[in-house]
Amino acid sequence: MSARRLSAGRLAVALAAVALATGGPGVAGCTPGPRTGAPASSAGAAPDATGSPVPRGFDCGTAIESLAAPPDDYLVVDGDVAVPARLSPVDAADQGGDDPRARWFAKFGLIVRAGATAQLAVGPQWTDRAAVEWGSGDSPSATVRVPACPARDPARPWQVYAGGMWAAEPSCVPLVITAGTTEATVLVGLNRRCS
């Protein structure tokens, strides 16, 4: 398998045309239940493989699978993070719950190369209407910071995490991915087609 790899310059052009699929082979995850309570904080926890504090809620041990490479239908950002290449529309289910940002959930796998750090966040103007969640069982939050997780299997260095995006209602929500020196924005269409 060889995933699409784009330079920072070509990435911005390619992401404008991205539409959502529900994940590729081996990237299914658990379906979350209704949510209650406050969103997760970003307070530090135990250190990662590099000794840096791991943001509360992200657990490297929650990887559901290890891969030799991301699937062909995933877009790789700066060689470290992969998300489905088509993110519009993605099926979103009404989960109910008390958090108004976390009513509708769209599940898709996040794939991160072992040892890489990344950040995934909803666009700044969406923090009161949307949230993200991977690598944890904690409440959804506006930002997920992925620490430098070790490889479970050196021959399969890409770690797969279950999770996805939450929103107050079906809509097109910007997902800002920061990996290495690249920041890319992908529109995630929760039961909507985004242009």
Automatic annotation (TrEMBL):
It comes from the Bacteria. Residues 1-21 form the signal peptide. Residues 31-57 are annotated as: Disordered. Residues 31-53 have a biased composition (Low complexity). Keywords: Signal. This is Secreted protein. It comes from Luedemannella helvata.
